[in-house]
Structures
1.
Amino acid sequence: MLLIVINNVSAYMQLNGAGGTVPANVFIAWMAAYTSLRNPFVDVRLSYIGRSSGFGKRAIAARSVNYAGTESVLSDAEYNKNPDLQMFPIFAGSASR
């Protein structure tokens, strides 16, 4: 049997995101809810910088963020250049004019 006692460990997981401003408010609301439910078990720190869809696409392609939000799909050229990137629809909205 192996017993391990760890005291005063200050470890956390940081997940950074960037991209469009449309999903920014949704992500921020979800981050607060996720953090409040998850932190009793593991310290997860989430961030999101809402600038533009293009910024998010460039940041995820450069691997400077862990996730990105965009209102536009990846083009065939973007997929060919970054074949391991995948898009998942997470919410829908409409623009009022």
Note: The beta strands are 13-19, 44-50, 67-69.
2.
Amino acid sequence: MKTSNDLIRSETPAYYATPPVAGCSMCTKWQDDRELRIAELEYCYVLLNRDQFFPGYAFVFTKAHVTELFHLDVTTRQGIIEEVNSVAAALAKVFTPTKINYELLGNMVPHMHWHLVPRFSDDPLWPKPIWSEAHAEKLLSPQGYSGRIESIRAALGGV
């Protein structure tokens, strides 16, 4: 008798066989935003968000063009979730926020990616979602970005 995991595994193409999709901004983000790279993990890439209005705001996105967690075999899905967890733990270590927000949406960019956002009880939008109000983009100097990236990398264990 097949389990639901067997059905998913048998109907799902191999994770790394999924090619980039033309026009997908996530499929090219690792190349497009080289200066914001934090780490390349087994299943995912990690980038700092250019807008640092929320200090430490980062993206974790799958290397392969995948849209849904249930499209993945159990091992791959668990590996991705562990990578997201590791990045969140590193952000918590570096920024000591009140809470980490995990946002996995995909309506606008249908490529599996998380917005990991350290939140602080004194941030201007607390406790509302980060999208609830427009805000002025906060850009850092090149040294500001590289310092923040190095701190997160160190907390990830130098990945």
Note: Residues 1-13 have pLDDT under 50 and may be disordered.
